[in-house]
Prior knowledge:
This protein has about 150 residues and is of the alpha+beta class. The protein is built from five helices and four strands; from the N terminus they run H-E-H-E-H-E-E-H-H. The protein is about 50% helix and about 15% strand.
Amino acid sequence: MDEGDVEKVWRHVRKAMLRIGASGVTPSHANSLLELLDAHDAVKVKISTDRAGKLDEVARSLAERAAEIRPPSHDGTAPAEVLRVRGMDRTVLFGNMGLAAKVAAGKYPPAPKAKWVSKQEYLAGKMMVEEEIDTFLEEGQAGSGR
């Protein structure tokens, strides 16, 4: 995945869903990460302290623990892949297997949902447009008669 695709995924995942504290990576963290990836395809993990180790090492450790719980697929794809490590806010972006293919195919991140508009808002907007069209046409007819 190129950097532009990773940036799309980073912006789509709004906040960290998993936090790792001073105790470091535990098997329950890896299990939680796998469950979150099954549900969301991409997950941000916040590393809350320096005592857990360097950010890159903690990210790699978490990915390795996840691979111990759920071994890589037959093609060698790991169940949790580190997509980005962002040091300034101590956050790591993980993606599940197959995410790169979804991003390349344009299936991830999903398109934003259309904004719901009430019937009253729709009719008010429609009326404004009709008034603008009428005004435009009246000005055009008045200008052509001169």
